[in-house]
Amino acid sequence: MNSFFKSRFQEVLFLAITLLAFIAFYIETDIYTPSFPQMVAYFGTNEETIQLLLSMNFLGLCLSCLFFGPASDAYGRKAILGSGLCIFMLGSIGCALTHSLQWMIFFRFLQGIGCGAIVSAGLAGFFDIYPSDQSSRLVSICNGTIGGMMALAPILGNWISLHWGWRANFYLIAVLAIVKFICHGTLTKETLPREKRTPLNLRSVFRNYGLILTNFPFMAHTLIWSLMFSMVLVFIANLSLIFIDHLHVPKEVFGYYQAAIMGAFFVGSMSGAYLIKKIGMITTKILGSLLYLVSIVSLFFLSYLEVNSPFFFILTMSLASLGIALAMTIYFSYSMSYIGENLKGSAMSLTQFLRLFLSSGLVGLAAGRFDGTTKPLSLLALLCTAMGLIFYYLLFRKKQHLAPDAKNSAEVEML
């Protein structure tokens, strides 16, 4: 038991409430995506416009996390997380009740703003209480649990929409948001003592962000894994429109196809820690990166050879997702190793911003080029992969493709 808590029960309760916030945040990303065709028909719109529900949510999230990270350092985690949860709750209720697509897009943007507090202040709470090695393990467990929930979310969302309509998914998210807001306000306590807080100074915040943005190894590693992770979200955003409308996959079974992508991500997240222990970080990173690369190239050729097989498409997307899960935490770890202790909070917020800004932009770009097939999606994935390879080549030339102290590690000596 950690000394911060008075009892083991209090610690488990804190972890459970924190995990509930992440679950509510992550399932709201894809629980409703199997309903895209139904929502297109209901609102009388097109595929490009309906995907604004996803891209605007990411935009709100990536903008707000830049503010919530430094704000939580100044005012404490509980107050900032509570404010974000309140915004998320209001956005969720709005999504459940509105009958206007324009207002739906606005409330999805509002949800994204609220989620910025979850990914910034919520995650920082772990690092306030636990040492870095234990915090990393907890983050890995959260990633695995979240990956599993995201794998189940489209199956659950598809089942809910078939029985009660697409709007019922938003009622579920609203209920989760209300429960989490109440639990946070009544059952949690502040994790950042007043003496450890730093005043909110906009000039120093922007100066810190400037230092991080000009830190090449941090930026290159971050962009590599952010581009990889963005592809998972691009796959999810386009899947129902491609599989149901173009490949004529029955709605009753579509959720299982989408779950395969996040299921693979779940397996990669849960097995990553084991593989790192058995074969080392470098080998695990190479394995995940190669699996991702081969899968993306295969998806590209399948698309342009017009092999219209749902099985082969989902196989390549799932294997790419597996490779991403294996490699991205290592790239993330390497990126943070190039950041000083006094900048890690700002670096965490900037990392979330870059990841979500890329995700929002790439989802929007894929929507704008959508033609009912996987060709635009596969071309976009290939171009992003090529960019990642360029960044890695530059890191390799500068001998910054590993953590700064990696050359002294036993792992490198063995290699």
Helix content: over 70%
User: Overall mean pLDDT score?
Assistant: 83
| Rg over alpha carbons | 21 Å
Number of strands: 0
Primary descriptors:
single chain; mainly alpha; 82% helix; globular
Explain what you see.
With 415 residues, the chain is mostly helical. The protein contains 16 helices and no strands. Residues 408-415 have low confidence and may be disordered.
Layout of strands and helices, then pairs:
Elements: H1 8-30, H2 36-43, H3 47-50, H4 52-75, H5 77-97, H6 101-129, H7 132-164, H8 167-187, H9 202-213, H10 216-246, H11 251-279, H12 281-304, H13 310-336, H14 344-368, H15 375-397, H16 410-414
Helix pairs in contact: 1-6, 1-7, 1-8, 4-5, 4-6, 4-14, 5-6, 5-8, 6-7, 7-11, 10-11, 10-13, 10-14, 10-15, 11-12, 11-13, 12-13, 12-15
